[in-house]
Design brief:
Elements (H helix, E strand, L loop, with lengths): L1 E7 L2 E6 L11 E10 L1 H7 L15 E8 L11 E4 L2 E2 L5 H4 L16 E2 L15 E4 L2 H4 L1 E2 L8 H4 L5 H11 L7 E5 L3 H12 L4 E6 L2 H9 L3 E4 L5 H8 L5 E6 L16 H9 E9 L11 H6 L7 H6 L3 E4 L4 H13 L11 E4 L3 H9 L8 E4 L1
Parallel strand pairs: 10-11, 10-13, 11-12, 13-14, 14-15, 16-17
Antiparallel strand pairs: 1-2, 3-4, 3-8, 3-17, 4-5, 5-9, 6-7
Helix pairs in contact: 5-6, 5-12, 8-9
The chain binds nicotinamide-adenine-dinucleotide and zinc ion (ZN).
Nicotinamide-adenine-dinucleotide (NAD) binds next to α1, α6, β11 and α9.
């Protein structure tokens, strides 16, 4: 089969590789119809992880079930399915608690598995013609009959919609809240949409990329451009000086200011300022573990000083971590099916698999208008 393979920093290509196949009775093989390039893929693409060369990338996958193992009882050949980026067993201590992003079975010695990702187990990604899905009954969400026509919406269920939703869950967004979201990338835009699903009265989205701020407006949020002046002050002005009730971080360790200068952690400290006392903050932007013995490495990996004192005095709370996609997916699928939400409006490009390397290059360069790239193998 053909698949997008990682060869080294900024070096990916579509190669001929062995077909995905059933390895365990609980596996399925899915023929991929849509697989997306994610901001998280860029951590690997840019060479900032220890992902092994030869790895097939791609954790935002949907498609048609082609084959099932003898132990698969619910998912059937021909079903259209979307696959949470988390690979989970469904029966360990964490899965039982709904914490499928931290499954203890699929990535022994660590927690959490994913397709085509560094340090998340030995699983191939889905930027390919076919994908092996472990524990298929648990990990495949079957889609209704409109799956093909709403592919651009349903494909967001593999990661960024539930991840944005997770940010609002961690922040405990409730009816009538004001919410500030840092980052108008795909995850931030889906967090803004999710805040509204949960009944937020007003949502501010901060970024400095005009094309993305326009999309923030299209999903119903108030865009704030931090190149027009201090974003925290703009939020305080808009909330009578109090700050927003809740905050979501959807940028991660690669934060920069509007001039492009890297400012690790600036979004965390800005959220502490922009959220009211006792307000809660959800962090879904990725921050990498830091090795306290390697100071130089630390600076490169995004060391920053958290304003913990202000955080303490404002009595705020913070929730972090990988999204437990399965917790949210069924309900979000139903909202798409009933035409209540249209997350697919953020899609900017739909390419064939053979155009994937070009898609990575232009998405990584954050070329104007390259918000969300879908690949159709
Ligand atoms: P992205 O890089 O496309 O978007 C990030 C956006 O943040 C960009 O538009 C950028 O201009 C903006 N930004 C940068 N610095 C800023 C600042 N100081 N203030 C305001 N905006 C700023 O990435 P994405 O795909 O939207 O993902 C966002 C983060 O979420 C990444 O770290 C990604 O790895 C992470 N993520 C986490 C999970 C999870 O389960 N927790 C899942 C998917 C992605
Ligand atoms: Zn993703």
């Amino acid at each position: 089969m053909r698949a997008l393979v990682y060869h080294g920093p900024k070096d990916v290509s579509v190669d001929e590789v062995p077909d995905a196949r059933i390895e365990q009775p609980t596996d399925a093989v899915v023929r991929i119809t849509t697989t997306n390039i994610c901001g998280s893929d860029l951590h690997m693409y840019e060479g900032r992880t220890d992902v092994e060369t030869g790895k097939i990338l791609g954790h935002e996958n949907m498609g048609e079930v082609l084959e099932v193992g003898s132990g698969v009882v619910k998912v059937r050949v021909g079903d259209m399915v979307v696959l949470p980026f988390n690979i989970a067993c469904g029966f360990c201590k964490n899965c039982n608690a709904g914490l499928t992003g931290f499954c203890l079975t699929v990535n022994p010695g660590s927690a959490g598995g994913a397709y085509g990702y560094a340090d998340m187990g030995p699983y191939a990604g889905g930027q390919a013609e076919y994908l092996r899905v472990p524990f298929a009954d648990f990990n495949a969400l079957v889609l209704p009959g409109d799956a093909e026509e709403k592919q651009r919406d349903y494909t967001m269920l593999s990661d960024i919609l539930p991840t944005g939703y997770h940010g609002t869950e961690l922040a405990q967004v409730r009816t009538g809240d004001s919410v500030v979201v840092y980052g108008a990338g795909p995850v931030g835009l889906m967090a803004a949409l999710s805040a509204q699903i949960r009944g937020a009265a007003e949502v501010f989205v901060i970024d400095h990329q005009p094309d993305r701020l326009r999309l923030a407006e299209r999903v119903g949020a108030i865009p704030i451009d931090d190149s027009n002046g201090d974003a925290v002050q703009q939020v305080l002005d808009a909330t009578g000086g109090q700050g927003a009730d809740k905050g979501v971080e959807a940028v991660g360790y690669q934060a920069h200011d509007h001039t492009g200068e890297e400012r690790p952690g600036i979004t965390i400290n800005s959220l502490i300022q922009a959220v009211r006392p006792t307000g809660r903050i959800g962090v879904v932007g990725v921050f990498v573990p830091q090795d306290p013995s390697a100071a130089d490495e630390l600076a490169k990996q995004g060391e920053f000083v958290m304003d913990f004192g202000t955080f303490f005095f404002k009595g705020q709370s913070i929730g972090t971590g990988q999204a437990n996609v399965k917790q949210y997916n069924r309900g979000l699928r139903n909202l798409i099916h009933r035409d209540r939400i249209h997350p697919g409006i953020i899609v900017s490009h739909e390419l064939s698999l053979d155009e994937a390397a070009e898609g990575y290059r232009r998405f990584d360069a954050r070329e104007d208008g390259w918000t969300k790239v879908l690949l159709h193998p």
